[in-house]
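COURSE: Structural Biology Practicum
ASSIGNMENT: Worksheet 4, Part C
STUDENT ID: 0417
INSTRUCTIONS: Below are two proteins. For each, the amino acid sequence is given first, followed by its structure token string. Answer the questions at the end about the second protein only.

PROTEIN I
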Amino acid sequence: QVQLVESGGGLVQAGGSLRLSCAASGRTFSTYGMGWYRQAPGKERELVAAISSGGSTYYVDSVKGRFTISRDNAKNTVYLQMNSLKPEDTAVYYCAGRRGTLWDSWGQGTQVTVSS
């Protein structure tokens, strides 16, 4: 497992942007698939975006064209650039890592609130 620490959440108006960062510990970060999950009150946690160790990306339909996931292996960091934010993007966002099929490394979460 790697230790993950998120930053960059906050309050933004609809249409605004935020960039989340997730700093990872350890020397094996580059071998991990990384993802961003979110959980809104009363809803299940959902995978928003993911990036493989090779750089392939995945996005849930609701954020395609608005969010971009990227990674910098030299800095052991994964990012989530969020543009054109909507009130329905309000949630706690979690960084996660995996080396197999199981997401087994998690950050503590960062709150994103989008006001209308």
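PROTEIN II
(use this one for the questions)
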Amino acid sequence: QVQLVESGGGLVQPGGSLRLSCVATGFAFSTYHMGWFRQGPGKEREFVAFISWSGGTTTYVDSVKGRFTISRDNAKNTVYLQMNSLKPEDTAVYYCNTESGRMDWGQGTQVTVSS
């Protein structure tokens, strides 16, 4: 059974940092490119960051470049998103999935950036 379980969200002040984690089970995680996505209030879900199966290639949406870092640990079936210099516009529910969103979506983790 495929499962994606995100964690690490919370309430943080502008300029703060959070580290999100996503544990994947039920599929061959190490062979899939993975991504982080987010859905802000009243918005469509959008791509945030991509990491290749090996971790050797990463890409980001322009709005988070230089602030967010995606990484993965294939031994732990886990993908991470380090978020620094957070802004109010980063407020959203964050999800992980394969690059193409192939798997069933998890519950996500809420990130709220507010003073």
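ANSWER KEY EXCERPT:
Q1: The longest strand covers residues 18-25.
Q2: The chain has a mean pLDDT of 97.
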